[in-house]
Design brief:
This protein is an alpha/beta fold and about 300 residues long. It has one domain: Alpha-Beta Barrel (TIM Barrel), CATH 3.20.20. The chain contains eleven helices and ten strands. It has an eight-stranded parallel beta barrel with strand order 1-2-3-6-7-8-9-10, surrounded by four helices. Strand 1, helix 1 and strand 2 form a beta-alpha-beta unit. Helix 4 runs parallel beside helix 6 and helix 6 packs parallel to helix 7.
């Protein structure tokens, strides 16, 4: 089975600025009209996709796929099982498996207890429902949210968390996706696992990926001066440089001193990214137009 593969520039939409009108504005073309941002990544909360148990509402995805196809683009579905604001993410029937984020780094939001067997079972059911899109030519696949949980250590302990169990969750999930989405990809946003200071368990998961050939691993942040990423995560890209990987130019990248030219080179040359996901936002420091200039200057890689 041949899996879909689209390298190059992608755009990842932010909640609140993810209408089809916003998506059209994020589609960058060269002077000849050739599309350069070839894939749109859009977030859909688990709660919205499955408002009640086994009741899947996929109309928005159908509409977005139709839109993407009309523009010559493709769509990647990121399901949200974690929020960074006061917004519940779980369907009501899974509310007991959802906890509030409560760490200094991520002081607000909600996260699913991903490693719980029942949560994994229900996530597999959601992926099975999304399998209806697998053969759609404009559907690239699905994307996870970051591995970092933002949950305090005492809550993690109370909920039975261990890094080994968390790694096992991802292996099981990716294996299931290889069957449920036989021609599509999983974009795995990975950075940290609680209690795994050397990221040996993330490394363990990455080592299992070649046998499946359906997962593209990568980071939610391209931040070459972020000490935690440099010390704990970025070495994985060097070790596994021959696997398919990506990097995301997240909102944090739009707030630092380094230019997008510098970040793009770091992502390509130091992290060996085959895909760069650009976020469609403006900040006081850098604007979406700054990203567009880099995209146009590096149309294919």
């Amino acid at each position: 089975m041949i899996r879909k593969w689209v390298s190059g520039h992608w755009v990842i939409m932010m909640r609140g600025n993810d209408s089809q009108a916003a998506m059209e504005k994020a589609l960058v073309r060269d002077t000849s009209g050739t599309l350069l941002t070839r894939v749109i990544v859009k977030r859909y909360s688990w709660r919205s996709l499955e408002p009640t148990k086994n009741n899947y509402v996929l109309s928005e995805i159908y509409s977005d796929l139709k839109f993407a196809a009309s523009k010559g683009a493709r769509l990647c579905v990121m399901w949200e099982d974690k929020t960074f604001k006061d917004e519940r993410v779980a369907p009501d029937y899974l509310s007991e498996y959802e906890v509030q984020i409560n760490t200094p780094r991520t002081p607000i939001g909600y996260s699913m207890i991903r490693w719980h067997p029942y949560v994994l079972e229900r996530l597999k059911a959601l992926v099975m429902a999304l399998g209806v899109f697998d053969t759609h030519l404009s559907f690239v696949g699905i994307a996870t949210e970051e591995t970092a949980l933002g949950i305090s250590s005492d809550v993690l302990t109370a909920k039975g968390y261990t890094p080994e169990l968390y790694a096992s969750y991802y292996k099981d999930f990716f294996d299931y996706c290889s069957w449920a989405l036989p021609t599509s990809r999983v974009m795995w946003h990975m950075n940290f696992m609680p209690g795994d200071l050397e990221n040996k368990w993330i490394d363990n998961v990455i080592q299992s990926l070649p046998a499946l050939d359906n997962v593209v691993y990568g980071g939610p942040d391209c931040l070459p001066e972020e000490e935690a990423l440099v010390n704990r995560t970025y070495w994985l890209y060097e070790k596994h440089r021959y696997l398919k990987s990506f990097i995301q130019m997240s909102p944090a990248c739009y707030k630092q001193d380094k230019t997008f030219w510098e970040l793009f080179r770091f992502g390509r040359e130091n992290l060996y990214a085959k895909i760069v996901m650009w976020t469609n936002i403006n900040t006081d420091k850098w604007k979406w137009q700054d990203a567009v200039e880099v995209i146009k200057a590096n149309p294919g890689f």
